[in-house]
Amino acid sequence: MNSIPAFLNRITISPLVLSLLLAICFGAPASAQTPPQAPGPERIFIGNAGPGPNVGSQGRDAEQYAERAYNEFFVAMQQWGIYEIVADPARADWAFEISITNDRTCGGYTGVKPGARAVLDNYQVAVLMTDAHTHHQRAGLAEPIRLFRPSDSFDQIFDRAIANLVDDVKKEVGGSVTMTPLPAQNQPMAPIPSQIDVAQKVFVESRVDADNAGGNSVANERQLYDDFVAALQKWGRFQVVSQAEADLVFAIDFTSPLVCDYGADPQILIYIKDAKTDISLWAFASHVPGALFTFNAHRNVTQGIASLVTEIRDFTMRPTWAMNASLPPQPGAPLAFTPAYAAAQPGPMNASPSSLPHIGSVSSLAGLVHLSVPFSVKSGTKIMADVTVTNSTQQDLQFYYTQGDPLGCAVTVQGENGKGVNPTTEGAKALATHAAFNGQRQTYVLHPREKQTRQCELSTLYDMTAPGTYAVEVTELDGVPTTSNIAAVTVKP
Q1: b/e per residue, 140-152, with b = 16+ CB within 10 A?
Q2: pLDDT tier at 167 (50, 70, 90 boundaries)?
């Protein structure tokens, strides 16, 4: 007896539908099931939130402390090897912002100056761990930079504080809690954030307290903002725009705390943040000399801001890694950066590259450099070129540059008649300084398939005010001879 109803005998089921029905009822065969994908490693972005108030004393001490902390923390996190470290904070799961703070206190009377108390420094190195997308704070960790043994040098107590801070991070995330060794001497230089190198537009934010703008050091809360914007515009590297249009946010602050019984200590602080993610990239600070008269105090602040902008300008000339670059987690793997401090050596920028030790031969960059310039500009407009180096070889390429050299990027500019264009007064000085420059040499590595993009000045170096079409070619990058494509820019009246 046939138990299947007659109407079912007339239904035709395709093999595809039948296989789907069987999969739903009995599960797909093992060979057809897709194995679950293991989650990839978490990504972190490491930023230098910089020196806080009272860090350092004069000149660039503040930045040196903060940059050293950033560098040692970066390398230690890479050696730990459980995170992928990314160049772009927008690609990160977590933001680790490293900083140095100093909570000054006053001790007993010194006897050096009647009634004056000793200044006691209480340095700490800290890291703020936040969700890169929600900005929810995961943890704020800090370690004192404190003397434990009379025989300890400052380097030893500084390095120990960084190692302890990395141990704190390991405990927080539940990873390996093996003690982090003290940083090796002459360790690699960590890369600076790429956003600062590629940004075009910035928003300037004042954090100066209008009710406590610094006494006679600052005329009013607008002085620092106006002076800083004026210094940026004189430089010409960035366009100051609204916050909605900006690539970066420059936040400027001022403090003038009393130093026990010795008077005030005026300080200017500048914090650079990524405008899209609001994550700290870098920070700068400078102590401003005090003054007896208000006029001199205002002048000192203006000069201090100009000095900070010069520091930022030097900073942007340093090599960095590509925006899409990352360092994959590789516990125990060798570091990806060449020991820049160990390789640093004095010497002219135009020394023969073949006489220097290279990972890969960089006697010429022919075929690796691409130049792009604006199609047309109005006469008098500042003209910049975007220069991209792509390592299309199968080996690491090592580059050298000299800190402070005004020309890490050399170009030639020709007019419509094929003749070279005369340099400007500023350009002639820069070319002469470059040709005879001696200084501390640093090194960086470009790995296979990595790119580096920088901006090179054109109209600042060469007189391109006359209407017409100019041909531009890159001839040297960081002391390495090269040839690039020839790009044309038309200057209109």
Answers
A1: ebebebeeeeeee
A2: very high
